[in-house]
Amino acid sequence: MSRVERVGAGEGVVVVIPTYDERESLPVTVRRLREAVPEAHVLVVDDASPDGTGQVAEDLAAELGRIDVMHRTGKSGLGSAYVAGFGWALSRGFDVVVEMDADGSHRPEELPAVLEALVESSADLAIGSRWVRGGRVENWPWHREVLSRGANTYTRLAMGMAVRDATAGFRAYRAEMLGRLDLATVASQGYCFQVDLTWRTVRAGGQVVEVPITFVERERGTSKMSRSIILEALWRVTAWGAAHRARQLRGLVRR
């Protein structure tokens, strides 16, 4: 029995891939994904890429099958793209919903290990983690590693959440848990979206497991990291952390 067949009795696994100007990298990623997990369905969520990524995705769908393309009218952010993709997946009865980038930084060959961890540990969320034992990054400048490690350390301390790579974007959710996270209220974008969904899973009583992966810096295109993304993550994590600590303090006072 394959890993996809073991995750549940519904429609199996769907991999949601948001795109914006990824016409060169998307075909390579999708073909590698099809080799690694042949049974998985793919949903490409394209934000009206000026470089024609949406049409490239349609061509792949016609050639390979089990690929759907969601065409959005403009660039609305990573979080918004994932929420739209999650809603599509939940409405169609998939058992597991995977997040994965199109740029090759998430190696499709490691998805079977992420799915295996979700099954073996009976977890609600399996994260492909750079910062657990065995995880690593390749071709990253030192300042990107310092930023990522620092952001995750700050998140753990501020929010009291024992996840070492809460900002990671290579992950698999059980659909049952994802459907409990009130996705309509998610406003976070950028990499803060990953922290937001991890935090919601933890607060909903979900079990999170981290799987070591190798994160590879993209070879094509340009990074979507920006100052605004960093600042959004900083203020939102600080606000969530402060609210969490305030709830803890009120609980102690009541006792």
List keywords for this structure.
seven-stranded mixed sheet, two-stranded parallel sheet
Would you write up a description of this structure?
The chain has 9 helices and 9 strands. It has 255 residues and is of the alpha/beta class. The strands form 2 sheets. Strands 3-2-1-4-7-5-8 form a 7-stranded mixed sheet, sandwiched between helices. A two-stranded parallel sheet has the order 6-9. Helix 6 packs parallel to helix 9 and helix 8 runs parallel beside helix 9.
Write the layout of secondary structure elements.
Layout: H1 3-6, E1 13-19, H2 25-36, E2 41-46, H3 53-64, E3 67-71, H4 78-91, E4 96-99, H5 111-120, E5 125-129, E6 136-138, H6 142-159, E7 171-174, H7 175-178, H8 192-203, E8 208-212, E9 214-216, H9 227-254
Parallel strand pairs: 1-2, 1-4, 2-3, 5-8, 6-9
Antiparallel strand pairs: 4-7, 5-7
